[in-house]
Amino acid sequence: MELLKRQEKWDITYTHALGEVASWFFVQIRDNAKIYGRRCAKTGRVLVPPRAFSDQTLEPTTEWVEVGPGGRIETFTMVYEPFQHLPEPPYAFGFVQLDGADTAIGGFFKGVDLSDPAKAAEKLAIGTRVKTVFADKRVGDLIDFWFELA
Amino acid sequence: MNAPRVGIIGIGQSAFKSRRDDASYPDLVREAVNIALAQSSLDLDAIEAIVYSLSPDAMVGIGNAERLGVDAVGGRNKRFLRINTGGSTGISSVAAAYYHVAAGACDVVMTAGADKVGECGDSQTVLNKIWDPIYERPLPQGTITMLAMSGIRYANKYGMSEEDMARVVVKNRKHASLNTNAHLRKETTVEEVMASRYISWPIKLMDCCPQSSGGGAMVLASERFIKENRLDAVWITGVGHCSETYYIGDRMGTGYTADHGDAYALGNSFKRAFKMAGITDPRKQVDVAELYAPFSNTEFHAIEAAGLAGHGEAVQGVKEGRFGIGGDIPVNPSGGTLCTNAIAVTAMIRVAEVALQVSGRAGGHQVKDAKLGIASGNGGDHQFFGTMVVEA
User: Fold this and answer.
1) What percent of chain B has pLDDT over 70?
2) What tens digit of pLDDT does each residue of B109-137 get?
3) Contact residues, chain A, for B199 at CB < 8 Å
4) Res. B1: pLDDT tops 80
């Protein structure tokens, strides 16, 4: 028998409030091109990206600590497949432990030729040193900065 | 702990496919419910409570789809809960059904659900939305990239090649070819997997699970009810759950408790289930395992978290055929999540499959003399882990 289908698209807009901690963090990125973490008073761990409380102790974080701009690749991937509403491939992104931080923050890796995946993977290997590069025009978002090989 | 025994008396699952244009979403739920009820020899009136298994709504494109599903499970005038822990939803639902019975609140409980992932044109876009909109979602995070990044850490720590990953696919596709309910049933070779295109390095197309449509249902009952009604059952003897913190970047760097390359919380979840079931040496006591692994590389850390191999040793074990049907401890004899992934019920099917194995009713993919099986489910951003021990 003939089986019918019905198509529908969801297009929903949200305006998310960032809260005090993330707002301060992104203002520093936008206005001063600096990245800060928050220190847990109990353990001394510096959380980057900064959060108002530690996931380990549930204690409030108490101190802003400038981190980076250098860091170390903790993991990465390179995407070669297009997905709707996600960037055009290929692109590389992953997580970097910035100098002075205990945790890793996500970001794109730019300036690496991704045409040969195996070669690119060697360049982005875990432990590789990178530097943070800031966009000239910054809006206060995670994509105001990215990482390039140091 | 002296937990009362809870038995599995009915199992229903669809023959999973990319699309089921012949069935609406509630039709698919109903399909699995009918099979499970028929197998349990009970009618709907005997079911006292429903645990509804449904992961992100946007995957089926229906907000709070448990409301649409309530008729398909005969939920009218019954206790009803919806469970959602992402990919582990199915095993969390079985656990919630178990708790109803173990707590003495009910004698007979059904858990059921379905998914139609094939109808969602943008499943990775939906899954991108599970990330924090402030710090992580500006990046193109998805479940594939998240687990590719786990694989890269695993490979860096222990050594794992793309060929090693391909061997998991070859094993599970071979298993799926024996399972009439599996979605991807065509056998493959290491060469064919290696030749498939990169999705998110090092994960290639054939290292990925499919987007499946189908339903699952299970009926659980108290030991007293099972004995009084002289029903056939296999027994859930261990139940574990364990969570991981949210941010992937906290599972690396310095001073972390869990490495994103391993499955730390899954290991803890298994320890809890094993303790409850009295399992002290899983390598000797476990006959069969159905471990949630949607991408080939993740089966390695799942095998290790289950205690079936030491850290970093699962790669060699797969190479030696230890985890294939006919090997020491077959892992994913159904073909596993890698060959069938109807997300809302995938982790339920892991439990259902080990139940079928230990009752000797698995059919073409039966593991000989299986008496004790283990199952797991992983959900969220590698965050919520459920485990179970099922015995004959």
Assistant:
1) 99
2) 999 999 999 898 788 888 888 899 999 99
3) 79-81
4) no
Task: In whole angstroms, give the CA distance from residue B260 to residue A57.
Answer: 20
Measured in angstroms, the CA of A132 and the nearest CA of chain B are apart by: 16
Q: Are B244 and B258 in contact (CB under 8 A)?
A: yes
Report d(CA B358, CA B389) in Å as an integer: 11
* Of B61, B138, B201, Cβ closest to residue A121: B201
Q: Tokens 């991108």 label which residue?
A: B128
Among the ranges A72-76, B4-8, B134-138, which has the highest mean pLDDT value?
Answer: A72-76
Cα separation, B207 vs B200, whole angstroms: 10
**Chain B interface test: which of A39, A57, A83 (most B C-beta within 10 Å):** A83
* Long-range contacts formed by B188-193: CB under 8 A, 24+ apart: B190/B163, B190/B166, B193/B165, B193/B166, B193/B169, B193/B296
For residue A31, being part of any structural domain is answered with: yes
Beta-bridge mates of residue B218: B11, B111
β-pairing, A35-40 vs A46-47, is antiparallel
Domain containing A33: what range? Answer: 19-149
How far, in Å, CA of A97 to CA of A74, rounded?
Answer: 6
> pLDDT class for B2, splitting at 50, 70, 90?
low
- Quick check: is A29 in a domain? yes
Non-local CB neighbours of B381 within 8 Å, separated by 6+ positions = B130, B131, B141, B143, B146, B246, B248
Query: Which of B125, B167, B93, B153 has the alpha carbon at shortest distance from B327?
Result: B167
Residue partners of B70: CB distance under 8 A and separation at least 6: B50, B52, B76, B80
DSSP 8-state assignment for residue B91:
H
Q: Is residue A135 part of a domain?
A: yes
What's the CA gap between A104 and B166, in Å, rounded? 30
Residue of B246 and A33 predicted with greater confidence? A33
The residues, any chain, with a CB within 8 Å of residue A74's CB and separated by 6 or more, are A94, A95, A96, A97, A104, A126, B153, B249, B252, B253
CA B131 to chain A, closest CA, distance in angstroms equals 12
Tell me how many domains chain A contains. 1
- Phi, psi of B139, rounded to the nearest 5 degrees: -90, 155
- CB-side exposure of B246: number of CA atoms within 13 Å? 12
The tens digit of pLDDT for each residue in A16-30 reads 999 999 999 999 999
State pLDDT tens for residues B252-307: 999 899 999 999 999 999 999 999 999 999 999 999 999 999 999 999 999 999 99
Domain membership of residue A1 (yes or no) is no
The hierarchical CATH code for the domain B6-121+211-228 is: 3.40.47.10
Mean pLDDT across chain B, nearest whole number?
A: 96
Domain range annotation of chain B = 6-121+211-228
Q: Does B230 touch chain A (CB under 8 A)?
A: no
Contact B135 A22 (CB under 8 A): yes
